[in-house]
Amino acid sequence: MLRKRYLNLHFEIVAMSTTGDKILDTALSKIGEKSLFTKELENALERNEVDLVVHSLKDLPTLLPPGFTIGAICKRENPHDAVVFHPKNYGKTLNSLPEKSVVGTSSLRRAAQLKRRFPQLEFRDIRGNLNTRLKKLDEKEDFSAIILAAAGLRRMGWENRIGQILNPEDCLYAVGQGALAVEVRARDQEILDMVSALNDGETVLCCIAERAFMRHLEGGCSVPVAVNTMLKDSQLYLTGAVYSLDGSDSLKDTMQTSINYSQQNEEGSSDDAQYVGITAKNIPPHAQEAAETLGVELASLLLSKGAKHILSVARQLNDAR
Q: In this protein, which residues make up the domain named Porphobilinogen deaminase N-terminal (predicted)?
């Protein structure tokens, strides 16, 4: 995308592995989730070995290390979760799988919601990258299906493996899911200006609301927090929920706010104000502020209804597992 915009610049891609890529036999929620997929890349950024790093936004903590910022969030891929079925179950849905069928997922968020929605099924941990998990599904009889992010499958060119897309009634998605974030050094104005061209306004505002919601809840990989956002007719809608590990206890609500925003005809921000770790220079600051306030207010509403208790119990139970 940058090469198309800046024909006179040379961009070198440096491939890197992270701790999260290497530890494939332990649930993510058990291995100290902060910076699991980001630390090695941020170290290279700090040492000036690279000028920008690309992450899945859902891997980035809502509090970034000092000196870093998200300089761009690209247009979001489908943020929903997808079901990939064992070859013997082609054509089925989760609802039509035989009772006691085993479904694999490495996500507490997915497991909590799906246990609640499909109590007739069993849910078990499955770890590994996409190739590994698909291989485990196809070559063994351990799982009838597995749950993965639709965005990952589409980016890898494996959209044909998607047997079912889970709608918000079945499963809300993770904060930032489906969006790519470009992290840069906060003081590097030249790089910040360059990558800001990649910002997709709607995606940025939705993700600011989601990240503000999670930060105010103090959520993370070790607790089931889920969202669904939509920007329509100048209204930003945010649905947020928290769940107990088994899905039996939950709180869910929706709020909205007016967003007067047009990427085409409004000037962006001249300063470097950050909203939940994001510096979107070409997005009007008042729109970003409204999105952040929406996330905080929805989190405050759920906390007032008892979300803190649900999350603290979930965290304790997960730590004890």
A: 5-192
**CATH number at 2-77+174-320:** 3.30.160.40
For residue 150, count other CB atoms closer than 10 A to its CB.
Answer: 23
Select from 3.40.50.300, 3.30.565.10, 3.30.70.3270, 3.40.190.10 the CATH code of 81-165.
3.40.190.10
Q: Report how far residue 80's alpha carbon sits from residue 147's, in angstroms, rounded to the nearest whole number.
A: 10
**Series of mean pLDDT values for 10-residue runs along the chain (321 residues):** 94 77 48 59 90 92 92 97 96 96 95 96 90 92 96 95 97 97 95 96 97 88 89 96 94 96 52 89 94 98 95 85 69
Alpha helices in 19-122 (DSSP H): 19-22, 39-46, 108-117
CA nearest 64: which of 74, 76, 55, 51?
Answer: 55
- The model carries a pTM of 0.90
Distance of alpha carbon 270 from alpha carbon 306, whole angstroms: 40
Q: How far apart are CA 236 and CA 202, in angstroms?
A: 9
| In the chain, domain spans | 2-77+174-320, 81-165
Active-site option among 21, 25, 51, 59: 59
Q: Measured over all CA atoms, what is the biggest interatomic distance in the chain, rounded to whole angstroms?
A: 59
8 Å CB contact between 11 and 18: no
25 is catalytic: no
